[in-house]
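Before a colleague's protein record goes any further, I have to sign it off. What it holds is a sequence and that sequence's fold in token form. My question to you is simply how this chain folds and whether the tokens agree. Thanks in advance; the entry in question is below:
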Amino acid sequence: MPSLFRFLTAVAVLAGIVYGVVFALANFVNPKPREMTVTIPPDKFLKK
């Protein structure tokens, strides 16, 4: 049983670290806005 508790503790700690990293990236990193241009070929507008 102690090995099960050790395994679950390790998984919980790893999950907490991953959650913390995702939270930090979502809240503290601001993307730089920029313009984007996409050209669509004219044949995409034709009805078939």
